[in-house]
Specification:
The protein is mainly beta. The chain contains three helices and eleven strands.
């Protein structure tokens, strides 16, 4: 959620998305993933990856980005702002067994690392208003506060892949999204490119806050409100942990 100083906007839903990966690749690699645990949640399921018979990949900061756009709505929308929030370092791992349907992925995002209303991304989005630095700081503080993301108690947004259907490169991911202690399940389409030592994912989708069981924030009897629609774009890059790949 985003809460701006002009219109306190729930972006919690906007932060809800995202997508992970899949693909069919042979090879059995079970590296000691625990040695790569810096920055990971304390309860990250490393054992599942160490014991897997598939090829294990780790998400890389290079070439990865989660970007969410939240829109204003209502008769008085001109008094509010649209917002864009992005994150450049999603973390986590993916294991790719011989069968694509058995892919497992666990993605996490440290919510305090979200960037709110970066000028370059606002320009790319074509927004027609310009929030002040104070507006942006207030938006970020409210977003991370106890009424929205509650970053103190829930420092990570987490996404797990529970099932994969379709044929490469176009697949559908069955996702479990955990935000603020609550888990929501949904499906997301993704385009996956798989190489011997790396893979990448691209996804773009429109979601609704109500899909996540959240009610869009509104004031003045709904005259100024947050649109239900959220636009999400995701780019992920992951590198194999196989010793032959030099990781």
């Amino acid at each position: 959620m985003i809460l701006s100083s002009r219109l306190r906007v729930p972006l919690a839903t906007a932060l809800a998305v995202l997508a992970v990966v899949c693909a069919g690749c042979g090879g059995s690699v079970a590296p000691a993933t625990h040695v790569l645990s810096e920055g990971f949640p304390a309860d990250f399921p490393f054992a599942a990856y160490e014991e897997s018979a598939g090829r294990v990949y780790r998400f890389s900061e290079t070439g990865s980005e989660l970007l969410i756009t939240v829109y204003r709505d209502g008769p008085l929308a001109r008094f509010g702002h649209d917002h864009v929030v992005h994150h450049l370092s999603p973390g986590g791992m993916i294991v790719v067994p011989p069968s694509i349907s058995d892919v497992r992925a666990d993605l996490f995002v440290a919510v305090t690392e979200f960037v709110v209303d970066d000028p370059e991304r606002r320009e790319e989005a074509g927004f027609d208003t310009e929030p002040s630095p104070e507006d942006i700081a207030g938006t970020r503080a409210n977003m991370l506060g106890p009424r929205v993301l509650n970053a103190t108690d829930y420092p990570f947004l987490r996404v797990s892949v529970e099932n994969v259907t379709g044929d490469l490169p176009e697949v559908v991911l069955a996702l479990a999204i955990t935000l603020g202690g609550a888990t929501t399940r949904m499906s997301a389409p993704a385009t996956v490119q798989l190489g011997d030592c790396s893979l990448s994912v691209a996804a773009a989708m429109a979601l609704r806050q109500t899909d996540l069981g959240l009610e869009p924030f509104s004031v003045l009897g709904g005259a100024l409100r947050v649109a239900d629609r959220l636009d999400v774009r995701l780019r992920l890059h992951a590198e194999s942990l196989d010793d032959t790949c030099g990781v």
